[in-house]
TrEMBL record:
Record carries keyword RNA-binding: no
Keywords from the UniProt entry: Coiled coil
PANTHER family: COILED-COIL DOMAIN-CONTAINING PROTEIN 27 (PTHR18853:SF9), FORKHEAD-ASSOCIATED DOMAIN-CONTAINING PROTEIN 1-RELATED (PTHR18853)
Name of this chain's protein: CCD27 protein
Amino acid sequence: TGAISSLQRQLEIQESELRRMRSEKELLHKQLREREVQLQALSDKFCSLTEEQRQEEIVVVMEEENRNLHQVVTEQESQLAEQSKLISELQGTINQLRAEVVTTRFQLMEQKQAHKEIQSQAEALQHKALQTTVALEHITSKFERYRNKIIQATFSVEGSQDPPGELTDNDVLEAMQRIINERTEFQQMLKNKGSK
């Protein structure tokens, strides 16, 4: 937004400079027209003089006026060429600034859209993380209940000793395997004796 404001200020300055240059160009054109009017007035004045006076006056005045007009025209043509060049450069700068403003606005819109998408993804991930945490707590709770049941079933068997302290998962598995082996052996022994 700051970049757009800066570009717009530059654009306003350049457009103001362009208007000033065009105004100066119009002023130069006006001065040139005034010179043409003065020249026409002198021409009309010479027409009213006698032939001899007219020739003498024409020679002197026209030489002087020609020099002056030639100098003025040269200066004004130079100024007009310079003003036209400046106007062209300013117009190019203004076009470039306008293009930069459009580009910056487009980039800003893209950034806003990307920010919204990232925010939406973050919210979705946060929701998914919450669901995962709840599911994990539920599974952990079920696992603890199942583990406690296994421990209770394993060490409540007749002839088994109470655990010496806190049991690891390996301790529980070994105790379960021992009970399974014992029951399998007992079942095999009963089959061998023909008992149902």
